[in-house]
Amino acid sequence: MIRMAKSNSSVSPEQVVNTVCAHNCGGRSRLACTVRDGVLVRVEPAPAPDDAYTGLCVRCLTLPQWVYSKERIKTPMRRVGPRGSGQFVPISWDEALDEIVDRFNALIDAHGSSSIAFVRSTSASPIASYTRLASLLGGGGTSNFYGGVDMAVHMGLNSTFGDKGMYGQHSNEWTDRLNSKLTIVWGHNPAETAMTAMRHLLNARDAGCQVVVIDPRYSATAMHANWWIAPRPGSDLALALGLLHVLIVEGLIDRPFLFDHSCAPFLVRTDSGKYFRSGDASTSEKPSAPQVWDLHSGRAVELNSTAAPALEGRFEVNGVSVATAFTLLTDSVAKYTPSHVAELTGLDASDIVDLARTYAKAGPAQIGLGYGVDRYKHSELFARAAAAIAIVTGNIGKPGAGVGVQSHYHGSHPARLGPGPALPKWASTKPVPMIEVGRRDLPVRAVFCQGDWINQRMGDMNTSLAYLKTLEFVVTVDHFFQTTTQWSDIVLPACTFLEDNSAARDALVFGNSIYLRPKVIDPVGEARTDFEIERDLARRFGLGEWFRESSEDVVRGQIDGARDPAFDNITYDQVVQAGGAIRLNVPTTPHVQYGNDGFTTKSGRAEFYIEELAELGEALPAFVADHEALLTHALAERYPMLLVQTHARQRAHSTFFNTAWTLEIWPEPILEMNPDDARQRGLANGEMAEAYNDRGHVVARVVCNPDFPPGMCNITEGWKQQQYADGNVQELTNSEINAGQTLIWGHANIPFFDTRVEIRPAALKRQGAEA
Ligand SMILES: Nc1nc2c(c(=O)[nH]1)N[C@H]1C(S)=C(S)[C@@H](COP(=O)(O)OP(=O)(O)OC[C@H]3O[C@@H](n4cnc5c(=O)[nH]c(N)nc54)[C@H](O)[C@@H]3O)O[C@H]1N2
Ligand SMILES: Nc1nc2c(c(=O)[nH]1)N[C@H]1C(S)=C(S)[C@@H](COP(=O)(O)OP(=O)(O)OC[C@H]3O[C@@H](n4cnc5c(=O)[nH]c(N)nc54)[C@H](O)[C@@H]3O)O[C@H]1N2
Ligand code: SF4
Ligand SMILES: [Mo]
Asked: I want to staple 48 with a disulfide (CB 3.0 to 4.6 A). Which of 53, 155, 309, 593 is the partner?
């Protein structure tokens, strides 16, 4: 991480423009961009209104190489060879846009607007993601491929604490780490994936907070921990249940918190698993609040009519057997004794006991989740178990406590910008869960991709690719030729976040401030912004009336129209005058989630028990051992290696895949594994190997790492098709659909890491590789 350098703008004719990084590492770093004669020549950190949030990573020093890369798409292109051949010719913007409009209109006339689907990059501008156009097209809106990544952990947290939106924030502000006595960094590698937030963790550690990293790999973050705990991959749910077992058996629980803020005292019918309510026998009645057991009268009553609800116990009410939710939790974790969990996770039983005790006794303690624990089939159950650990110990709603994702912007003040431009009431899209694409019949015949969809967003790529080949028309808008462009009919050149013609491309909240993202340089080649492309297409579709504003107008509306008190007395003009960033109207103390506001669940309490999931046996977060990562899985014998795809320090996903400085350090995809695993397969460091399973294969160079756990290997996600010697890591990844997630949330997360492979020396050698 690089701290601020002094800008020399005052002594040279160069101009320094401050903007905010748009790459989806989530860091939102404020960048000071030096522009000389209209050319971006240097990127340094720009001061944030609160210095706690000043800083950037080394990747962004390479932005000039990124933005002026020779691989930039400079003009619109039309496919001329067979699909997939990569043969394109330049065409004019008018030709390209006309062709898209003609083809889309013909499909809409023949098959309706759901025959078109939109899909977007996570780095896209929040106000220019083609969502407005997608909602208006054909008078009924198009299909919308959504979901699939980073969602399981949020599903679990949202189910427990109340829905805060799919990427809702449950953790306290970053600077609150200093108030923690212990923090568990669980399945997260901020030293590489949240570089600007890592300092808050290190500051806390230096101030005496114990840092515990739970990761099967000795990660760059584990290096900095006081305690590194390495369970077998995919076994964290068992570990969390084991910790709950110890906490409950040893009485390391916060009874007042459980009584006042959780579902613990609610009675549950043991026949149906549903909450027991008044008039429970009659299912036709509108559900009222769950009842509790009154210890004084020995009856089931409304919660607010007793001063003595039971926390524990099994009872009979009118012939119905009931138990408190806490008793069901206690009983459900009874079998996760330290020794049983040791078998399931590969850990020492004494470490499990120690961790539970240390966490409960430390003082305010945090659990910071990453997305390494999001990419297994039952990750939402894991997140619910992790949340239950915080609930039973009362580690929520106070400084230094909390449980939530601690990546991306999670750790910012939860201030909300005002809404974007109004749309008519009928405007909407038809959601299609990404994970189901290619796996069920869809009405879609054409796809509009903002960014690289097939390489980046889809597991089990051969299934998705087969689907893509059935489509009649594919459009991709991107900065670079990448994997999906290869399969497209029309390719459009998009401006990067640095190029624009507008004073305010986006506004965003980060940390405790509001930032603008202005134009830094002119568009490269004939590139246009996504905002302009969406507007130009809309006009051609006869929808121009909904796209009258400039991006600056939209941003002004979002700031001046914000109803959040954090924006009181803050106007767009003031943010501009302040140089594009201003501190929000929020307290100077770090924000604490659930400190003042209650939970937004139906009961207003933290709900570790979810009655809707009783039919699947998941009302409590049970350990479901049916997923590919586990050694007990049927595929484990044939495919003994687990392949994860961590996020790479030198890229943000695929971004920077082609910058010279990052390639110098890490020029090609590597397959990292323990030297013993390599040796057993006749492989040595630096040799080319093939990882394969029933879904596909990839060829990559082996890097032997003695710190790597036996049985686990890694190829970082984000390499582009043209960088692989053969195959693609995404051919191997799993796309199994989770029923519980689908039942509650209507879609499932892609279990990218539930991927077993076997590895052998590659028959095919990369060109130029040593024999
Ligand atoms: N440099 C860089 N930063 C990024 C990104 C990027 O591409 N590059 N991407 C951004 C995005 S969108 C995301 S979602 C985040 C992801 O970033 P992270 O949340 O850090 O996720 P990963 O890198 O996927 O994995 C984190 C850690 O989980 C570990 N892990 C794997 N399996 C298990 C398991 O079963 N149990 C446990 N406890 N740990 C496990 C891995 O070994 C790894 O060290 O990073 C963001 N930041
Ligand atoms: N196997 C495996 N796959 C994964 C993951 C994993 O762990 N394992 N992680 C998943 C996760 S967590 C995430 S968040 C996704 C990220 O997936 P994406 O968001 O799709 O990844 P990016 O590489 O950021 O962007 C994809 C493409 O969009 C282009 N692009 C970037 N910005 C813009 C823009 O402003 N306009 C236009 N038109 N194009 C733009 C980029 O050049 C790039 O080609 O990847 C997922 N894929
Ligand atoms: S890639 Fe991430 S850490 Fe690096 S400058 Fe951009 S936002 Fe900051
Ligand atoms: Mo992500």
From this structure: 53
Beta-strand runs (E) in 406-542: 430-433, 446-450, 473-478, 490-493, 506-510, 513-517
Q: How many domains does the chain have?
A: 3
Residue 238 and residue 369 share a domain: yes
CATH of the domain at 610: 3.40.228.10
Residue nearest to atom 4 of ligand 3 (CA): 57
- Tell me the pLDDT band of 165, cut-offs 50, 70 and 90: confident
Cα–Cα distance for residue pair 115/18, rounded to 1 Å: 42
Sequence-distant (6+) residues with CB within 8 A of 269 are 275, 276, 280, 320, 321, 322
pLDDT surpassing 90 at residue 287: no
Domain interval for residue 323 = 171-411+598-616
User: Considering the entire predicted model, what is its pTM?
Assistant: 0.96
* pLDDT single digits (tens) 357-401: 999 999 999 999 999 999 999 999 999 999 999 999 999 999 999
Instruction: Decide whether any atom of ligand 1 lies within 6 Å of the 621 Cβ.
Output: no
DSSP structural state of residue 612: G
State if residue 196 touches ligand 3 by the CB under 6 angstroms criterion.
yes
Cβ(15)–Cβ(9) under 8 Å?
Answer: yes
Q: Is the CB of 63 under 6 A from ligand 3?
A: no
Q: Is the CB of 33 under 6 A from ligand 3?
A: no
Which candidate, 566, 660, 606, places its Cα nearest to that of 263? Answer: 606
Residues 280 and 344 in one domain: yes
Residue 84: CATH number of its domain: 3.40.50.740
User: What atom of ligand 2 comes closest to residue 450's alpha carbon?
Assistant: 38
| 245 and 274 both lie in a single domain | yes
Q: Measure the CA–CA gap between 653 and 662, rounded to whole angstroms.
A: 13
Cα gap 124→453, rounded to integer Å: 13
Q: Are residues 444 and 318 in the same domain?
A: no
